[in-house]
Amino acid sequence: MAVNAVPSAVPSAVPSAVPSAAPSAVPSTVPSAAPSAAVNALREALGAQVVALPDEFVDRRVEDWSGLPSAVPLALIRPHDTREVAVALEICARYAQPVVTQGGLTGLVGGANLRGDEVALSLDRMNQIVEIDAVSGTMTVQAGTPLQVVQEAASAAGFYFPLDLGARGSCSIGGNLATNAGGNRVIKYGMMRDQVLGIEAVLASGAIVGGLNKMIKDNSGYDLRNLLIGSEGTLAVITRAVLRLRPKPTATATAWCGLPSFDAVTTLLRRAQAGLAPGVSAFEVMWAGYHDTVLANLNTLRAPLASPHPFYVLLESVGTDPVRHGGAFEEFLGAMLEEGVVTDAALASNEAHAQAFWAIRDAPGEYQRFIPNHAAYDVSFSIAQVGDAASRCEAQLHARWPEATIMIYGHLGDGNIHIVVDVPGLPKHDHDAIDQVIYDVTRDFRGSISAEHGIGIKKKHFLHLTRSEADVASMRAIKQALDPARILNPGKIF
Amino acid sequence: MAVNAVPSAVPSAVPSAVPSAAPSAVPSTVPSAAPSAAVNALREALGAQVVALPDEFVDRRVEDWSGLPSAVPLALIRPHDTREVAVALEICARYAQPVVTQGGLTGLVGGANLRGDEVALSLDRMNQIVEIDAVSGTMTVQAGTPLQVVQEAASAAGFYFPLDLGARGSCSIGGNLATNAGGNRVIKYGMMRDQVLGIEAVLASGAIVGGLNKMIKDNSGYDLRNLLIGSEGTLAVITRAVLRLRPKPTATATAWCGLPSFDAVTTLLRRAQAGLAPGVSAFEVMWAGYHDTVLANLNTLRAPLASPHPFYVLLESVGTDPVRHGGAFEEFLGAMLEEGVVTDAALASNEAHAQAFWAIRDAPGEYQRFIPNHAAYDVSFSIAQVGDAASRCEAQLHARWPEATIMIYGHLGDGNIHIVVDVPGLPKHDHDAIDQVIYDVTRDFRGSISAEHGIGIKKKHFLHLTRSEADVASMRAIKQALDPARILNPGKIF
């Protein structure tokens, strides 16, 4: 995915862009010098090595990549294992002490940021791979393990862990689970919830639920696992997980296609899904506005096709049959060109070619350099309506801001697009009017205001556009049932 | 799937086997002649055409295929649409009137059976396909639509709906969702929860949650959809759903393999998943005891291989490339024979051959004829532990009942096996001792007591073997939060 708006390398650059008056921001507070009774109890139970006071972690980053402000926590808890997490939460529940769980802090919606009255619970010390079971095809990990460590360990064991996103080096499996992370391979492998068999989690009470199940099928009672996944730290602290490993792909074919219309784009998607035997592993669509803007601004990029087209698609298929894979892909692409679904195409004949195609799609990592004040959106629709919804957004934005740069691109196979808007002269903290346009269209098309980034604090005021009053009331009832003292990540989602 | 113990054709034959004293059975009661205030209010609001009294539905079956007893409902509600469901539940909530939702009544754990104080809510009139969206690849249906109708409509529209189980002609999509149905194609396509994008459901209060979303990605708040799926009618009544359609396979390859050991079986699974480019669509393992017993008892079956083997696997791969599919499959099988992973194999050269292989795997539909008093189990383990768990079950059963017939078979790619035990002279209502052996081993191997059939009333007393106290307490808290008057399917699951 598309960590839009976030520099690929130096997240510490983001806080400089923190708006001075973000809508839902609580002013940063400096905790008073004397630790509270809750913090004292935590420190007594777990020791100073696990529970640090603010002057003991002054240099540590405590906010995510959203650019939203964060206060400093009253204490920073860094447990070594599930038992210490349970002890910490049991004490916090007793003192009604709010807790914000933190993983790699790469979120984009302020989900791990603080108001000032919370302790932070970092899982960074729980970063061990517990076991790889090559027969069952599973990897058991602690929640603080970085995604990239998991990917590399899977590869070393002869498997493939398909979840992948720009923040892979920093984000943790626990954060991926708490936010149900998406990324580039969802079309073939699903989101984070599809990569996991068992999760172990600690409730606000300190009770441990779930477990390290390796069963693919388990219809014994309610699906707590999927309820906790994507709940952004508001229902439980995920401590360990059993991940599902996949066969390692041994063949990749990649093409860059120019297409005449959005109808042709959806036709290519359907035909590729039906016609490419191992399936489609990436189907990244880019509107001409995106293509032209990033090529004009980044001189390391080169246009793969000689002539301009209204739409471009990066099509990729991975498989496990090196002998037949390339021929079948080429044949399919030839048929699409012959039928006019695709107007022109470039087939990657080696990995460097494929990387050059991906570099165009990965250009959002460079936004900070040429459009530092842009607004970025992560919305989803039915696949059939993506084209109309995007057109309506574009038309309404251009009507109001004729000088705006609008870039639309995304994972069409998932109905997920990103819309980036840069209005010259409009500062970053003044995006409310753009929000309104994008989210009103999203509501009208019954789409989602958050396809993969979550709600956090950034989108909570728009949640009602995607979820009904009855839905939100149900979520609140579940929150009340599992966290009656409301200590877990208060003020997030709703 | 393995509708173990249930005749494939005539479900009405089952009730004759109803045990006279099932452990959790409440004796059938005949409702008193005078309708209750709740039934009167329902009839007044919805009319006699929607709310029928017992003497108006005397010939109608009201119990599932479990063989467990069921009372007659106080009234039978047959709404036409979501609004009528909401009206009915709102009235039931007001009168604290328990409600049992019924779909096709093909469940195997008594999940839709009655104690006697409930009204039944049948979705059988809500059986319409609302829309097929060929661009988005979705089908919107009412929950009462039979699975087979959905499969056929998908096929007619050029798509494939992969969920498949023996009860396809009778079971409904709503029941498939309420129980998170599994079946034969889980290894490639997942369970019912993986076949659905949006669900609309009515809570006990009459409030409507969810909706007809076609988004593949939606990270806006808690995952109510997956919480309701598999909750066996205890949290809400699912009224409509948006199903996900898949590309129609155009090539199938099927082989029957004889293998020397369980290690060889897991090796074949891993190698097939890594080596067959379109993946594995079925991997059905059968222990020799199963193979030999069904072949000895059903003279329509013929052994595909000349010599006996300790294990047999029905391996199937479906794909969309008719040109390359067969060759790649044959090549893979050749390599497995050469390496000794597979000792002997028969490749289906036409559909009749493939059907003959499947007939051996589908023999459980005939159990009623030759082992009418058998006990059947549906358990799951990590793939690595299936062999050891099965061996331990077999050894313990044989030690206690040397004369027992034991048949083990199942979906190894999902870690899901079925164990069927026939002890000559042991009647159907006297299976508690067999239950204990199977479920103790399941607990010891940290498996699931219900891979795909659900808990209902049949397995509720064993739930603690698979789910912890904290898990069950969380489920109860969620139940209390969403159905505070406990009117929905009371007494089921826990």
From TrEMBL, chains A, B:
Which keywords does this Swiss-Prot/TrEMBL entry list?
Answer: FAD, Flavoprotein, Oxidoreductase
- SUPFAM superfamilies from the entry? FAD-binding/transporter-associated domain-like, FAD-linked oxidases, C-terminal domain
PROSITE patterns registered for this protein in UniProt: FAD_PCMH (PS51387)
FAD-binding PCMH-type domain location: 69-248
Q: Does the keyword Isomerase apply?
A: no
Gene Ontology BP, a term: respiratory electron transport chain
Q: Which cofactors does this protein require?
A: FAD
Q: Which InterPro entries match?
A: FAD-bd_oxidored_4_C (IPR004113), FAD-bd_PCMH (IPR016166), FAD-bd_PCMH-like_sf (IPR036318), FAD-bd_PCMH_sub2 (IPR016169), FAD-linked_Oxase-like_C (IPR016164), FAD-oxidored/transferase_4 (IPR051264), Oxid_FAD_bind_N (IPR006094), Vanillyl_alc_oxidase_C-sub2 (IPR016171)
GO MF annotation, one: FAD binding
Give the family, as the similarity comment puts it.
Answer: Belongs to the FAD-binding oxidoreductase/transferase type 4 family.
- Name-wise, this protein is D-2-hydroxyglutarate dehydrogenase
